[in-house]
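Hey, can you fold this?
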Amino acid sequence: MPKIKTNRGAAKRFKKTANGFKHKQSFRSHILTKKSTKRKRQLRGMKQVHDADKALVARMLPNL
């Protein structure tokens, strides 16, 4: 039986928490001048993975 491999791209994007996985929000890397201060502020920080996506992320990260 072969070893189960972790998806390395997903491992760099998601962190395991007690309640699931957290990830950085998108739309914060470039072209920020046209985005409002409020929108940029709300995109800061980490967010939880939605319930609908938890199983997919868990399958990509079996060893985390």
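Oh, and this one too while you're at it.
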Amino acid sequence: MQVIKRLLLTTLLFAPVVAISQSSMLPQGYKHQQLMDRLEIRFRDSALSFQHLKPYERKAWVNFLESVQTDSFSRVDAYNIQDALMNNQEWVTGSKESFKSRKPWFRTFYKSKSDFALVDVKDFFLSVNPVFQFNLAKDSDSDETVFLNSKGARARGLIAKKIGFDFYLTDNQERPPMFVRNWEDSFRAVPGAGFYKSFKKTAYDYFDARGSMYFNVTKYINVQFGYDKNFIGNGYRSVYLSDFANNYLFLKLNTRIWKLNYQNLFMELVPEEPVNSGNKLLDKKYAAMHHLSWQATKWLNIGLFESVIFGRENHFEFSYLIPVIFLRSIEQQNGSFDNANVGLDIKANILKRVQLYSQLLFDEFKLSEVKGGEGWWGNKYALQLGGKYIDALGIKNLDLQGEVNLARPFTYSHKDSIANYTHYNQPLAHPRGANFYEIVGILRYQPHPKWQVQSKLIFWNQGLDSAGVNFGSNPLRSYTTRPMDYGWSIGEGRSSTGINASLWVGFEVLENLFIDGSMMIRKMDVPDDPKLTTNSTMFSLGLRMNMFRREYDY
């Protein structure tokens, strides 16, 4: 990966000569993501057709918002559009007078309603904001108080509108619900985090640091070098790449021309690590992912995906840097046995009210074994089917989403544990790993510009390992330890069934400052192991600013 960094440095040195105007990206958990989904469904053939590759570019988002007429929108949508423009004002070409505060703090801070400190002069833009989230909860499964204490800062900027950058840092102390602590005990990882320390015996202390630089090498090709997360998909989950795991170092090339968008993502990851004590250099593994999207018609988008995860003791596999080739063929030519996957995804926006979407990922597949019907272990694949319905039942700003996800046993796992589909002991795709099916239902309602409501119901069935026997649910385990070759189906092993139901109500007191109230009921039943059977209810109340909500949705 050092070679990639040197190549990137060389590119950066020449970038100012050729760079076109460049933008930073929208953050994880962007508060107007639902607005973006609504506008994509309503307008269909638009720049938003490629927003399934997240994070999405601020400049493209603002260009689209400025092109729409707000007269035909609901009061809530019209408000959200103006609010989204204010929070991305470096690219706004119209008047910015409405963004200004009436009474800035000490005539210096909060000159703009959305920014603590703002510099907007010729050839330089800088926005700096505080970040915090304070949350207290009561979990019926534990006598201890569940809490989250996060505080930090974020910044973004532009230099001559050619070089973009962003930065995010929080210091976090967290005691999650008991089922998350059990997950940490099993996987030796805090979901979404990297290195962590024990705090007050049953809580965790960790940093979340992210940052990126951006530039365009041509009008159509964008480059991002950063340490952050990425997400590929239109659904609540992704069977390609989700933002569940820890941050990672990456180089991303994105080419958008005509009706095509082609993304190349090169990642430096951390293989399975029993315990990170913080006093030794961790091993590395690498991933290369390609995604090609084609806007086939006004309403139909078709995508192709491929990835390979690999590890080398002495060098990086340079052939995987080629951005326009079938990775599986490179794997075969190298004589290696790396973890290669391919996928197909489809999205259809119909009737200006409905979106249907899907992802299909093949880890390994033999049609002859499928026809044989004997449940061969090596037919490893994951599937997602989902739909969104906006302004449901004629009620403005009431949106519904339904989704089914599944993965056969041993999907994402590998013969060599260093090449499995994980990072820092956490799945790169679906949080449940494999050998499961899941049903997700979400209701989102915004009755007023300042009020938001979300109700979510998640049901799953998964086959767990039993008595140390590998039944293919944990991608960290090598598939060579499987107990048999045939007779495999989803749910094989120790059967577990669960439900996670939640309700969240949020009120925006001031710009980007939210009061959050939520309730969650989670049940998991493992008939042959009462120790794993849980039934908990949690109520929480919190205050959050310029930060995504921390959710326990698995």
